[in-house]
Every structure is written in C-alpha cells, then in structure tokens.
Amino acid sequence: MSPRDVQTTSQARGDVLTAISDGIVALLKEFYGRGPTRAKSYYEDDLVVCLLRGGFSRVEQTLLEGGRGSAVIQQRMEFQELMRERFAAVIEHATGRHVIGFMSGNQQDPDMICEVFVLSP
User: Fold this and answer.
1) CA 58, CA 46: separation in Å to the nearest integer?
2) Distance between CA 1 and CA 20 in Å, rounded?
3) Distance of alpha carbon 67 from alpha carbon 34, whole angstroms
4) Sheet containing 99-107: which strands, arranged edge to edge?
5) How far is CA 95 from CA 34, 49, 67, in A?
6) Among the listed residues 86, 79, 83, 92, the one whose alpha carbon sits nearest the alpha carbon of residue 118
7) How far apart are CA 84 and CA 88, in angstroms?
8) What is the model's pTM?
9) Residue 53: helix, strand or coil by DSSP?
10) What does each C-alpha distance from 4 to 8, 17, 43, 63 come to in angstroms?
11) What is the tens place of the pLDDT at every residue in 86-106?
12) Alpha helix (H) residue ranges in the chain
C-alpha cells in the first residue's frame, strides 16, 4: 500500500468515526435538549463503541443532587432502549454495515455513557 493509499484510508476511517460521533451527539441533543460535552468513537472489525462524556440535563442534575441517581440511570437506560433503531441507523449509515447488537451503559461520576454496537460480519 502506498503512502497515499494509507492517507486516503485514514481519512475515510476518520470520516466514519466523525459521522458516528456527530450523529449520536445530534440525536441526544435533539431528544434531551442538550448533548454530551465530549464524544469519541472507536470502530474495529465488527465493533463500534461511542464514549460520551458530560451532558446531564437540568432535571437529571437535580435528581442526582437530591440523591436519586438510580432514577437517572434507569431513565437513561429506558431512553436508550427506545432510541435503539435511531442509534443503529446512524451507525449503519456511517459504516455501510448492519447493526445486529446494541448495548448501553451509564455512569454518574464522572458522567459517561458508553454505546456499543455489534455489526454483521
């Protein structure tokens, strides 16, 4: 592979990762009213991982401060399950591959969401 081919491949991969991060952040902003403050996506073989940091809504922050962190996590998990098809569509559009699995995890301190997608081979 020539240096030019390597550069083109790297740029294409970077475009895919950017499309994934931007797409997931846009969905969260649209439905939560605000999105994460940082996002980074990883794509290797049949696996896509999106790590999102920051972005508790005012309601969520109020619940956290009132000792209701478990309610925030439960609400986020319910939301992410409802958003499964929309999240998968972002990944499928960016990668050109079908999503066959989706898992989501949340953490409060520090505030992080991890979205994991498994792609068809």
Assistant:
1) 36
2) 26
3) 22
4) 38-44, 47-53, 112-119, 99-107
5) 25, 13, 40
6) 92
7) 6
8) 0.84
9) strand
10) 6, 20, 22, 52
11) 999 999 999 999 999 999 988
12) 3-32, 58-65, 69-82, 84-95
What six digits make up the tokens of 12?
Answer: 């294409």
Say what angle helices 3-32 and 84-95 make with each other, to 10 degrees: 160
Which position has the token pair 């319910």? 78
Query: Do 83 and 57 contact (CB within 8 A), yes or no?
Result: no
Residues of the chain above pLDDT 70, percent: 91
End-to-end CA distance of the chain: give it in Å, rounded. Answer: 24
Q: CA-CA distance, 17 to 13, in Å (whole number)? A: 6
Q: Name residue 67's beta-bridge partners.
A: none
Distance CA 70, CA 33 (A): 21
Tokens of 53: 């940091």
